[in-house]
Write a sequence for this structure.
């Protein structure tokens, strides 16, 4: 029987996972990286029907996770994955197991997950995570999943794998040097790689991601309006759509807060340059991640002699690369990986 391989990328903003592989197409889904704890069973029933969430038991509590998790939210912000060791939190485990629940699998031969570059350098953390996940877990609604083996890799390494395979340039890229920049919700990650091998001393991450951008803008709105404004999702949508957010029933112009927000992106790129210099020895600079759209200008200004390459659906670049890496590991072990269509998130 062919081994079953899956990939999950628990980011600070979103949890991404593979739903199906059809030839060269890797289909994915995502839900917010929010986990709401309770000490009672989660019904998820509302007057309009069942919300698309699941209650996952972890460490004596039940964490509600899933696409409709905002319907379970209270005044507390449950986006708690904001420090470097977030993979050790019960919320991280709940989000990972929630993704497996929505995949509707009962057993995995290999699960591939990702970590920020700085965290990946701490080998004892990586080893502990792989050991903790490689077990039998309850994943909600009376279901269980058994994971035989887990492989953690640096998050930008997934984007490198995805880019190489999507552009059919694996052979050429094995001969070249690359800089892969992954702009996440909380972490700005990068790796320098020779071929598919990471150059560790030139790769790292800093906590200057989209969360910091949104926080700076929200602080500016708070000062201007004299309120405690923390609707980060509203600001995020406004930046992505190029529209003014509506606050107190009026459009609010974010332009006055943009210079400080742009400075955060510039600071992140400047820290990266301490490690990569002017990138004169780099043939490919690849920009991915959910915050790529906002950091693009700072990256381009810092590397004016390079062409900055991006991928379609940058949010899913890492998890698609994780899936490719897992399938290659399975092939190297002597058996091709099996990935069956598992439907969309929240189908149950």
């Amino acid at each position: 029987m062919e081994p079953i391989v899956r990939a999950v990328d628990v980011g600070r903003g979103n949890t991404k996972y593979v739903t199906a592989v059809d030839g060269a197409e890797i289909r994915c889904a995502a839900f917010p990286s929010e986990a709401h704890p309770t000490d009672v069973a989660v019904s998820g029933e509302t007057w309009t029907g069942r919300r698309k969430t699941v209650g996952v038991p972890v460490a004596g509590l039940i964490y509600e996770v899933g696409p409709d998790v905002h319907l379970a939210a209270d005044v507390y912000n449950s986006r708690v994955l904001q420090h470097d060791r977030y993979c050790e939190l019960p919320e991280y485990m709940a989000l990972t197991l929630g993704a497996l629940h929505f995949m509707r699998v009962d057993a995995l031969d290999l699960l591939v997950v990702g970590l920020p570059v700085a965290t990946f350098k701490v080998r004892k953390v990586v080893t502990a995570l792989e050991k903790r996940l490689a077990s039998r877990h309850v994943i909600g609604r009376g279901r269980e999943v058994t994971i035989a083996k887990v492989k953690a890799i640096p998050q930008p390494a997934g984007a490198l794998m995805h880019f190489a395979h999507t552009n059919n340039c694996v052979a050429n890229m094995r001969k070249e040097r690359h800089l892969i920049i992954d702009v996440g919700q909380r972490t700005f990650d990068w790796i320098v790689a020779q071929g598919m091998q990471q150059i560790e001393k030139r790769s790292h991450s800093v906590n200057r991601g989209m969360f910091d951008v949104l926080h700076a803008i929200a602080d500016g709105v708070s000062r201007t309006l004299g309120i405690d404004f923390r609707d980060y999702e509203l600001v995020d949508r406004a930046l992505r759509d190029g529209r003014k957010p509506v606050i107190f029933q009026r459009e609010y112009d974010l332009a006055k807060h943009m210079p400080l927000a742009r400075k955060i992106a510039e600071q992140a790129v400047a820290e990266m340059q301490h490690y990569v210099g002017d990138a004169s020895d780099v043939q490919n600079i690849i920009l991915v991640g959910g915050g790529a759209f906002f950091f693009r200008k700072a990256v381009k200004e810092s590397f004016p002699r390079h062409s900055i390459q991006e991928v379609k659906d940058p949010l899913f670049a890492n998890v698609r690369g994780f899936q490719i890496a897992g399938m290659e590991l399975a092939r190297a072990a002597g058996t091709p990986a099996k990935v069956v269509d598992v439907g969309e998130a929240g189908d149950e």
Observations:
- The longest helix spans residues 258-276.
- The CA atoms of residues 143 and 265 lie 43 Å apart.
- The chain has a mean pLDDT of 89.
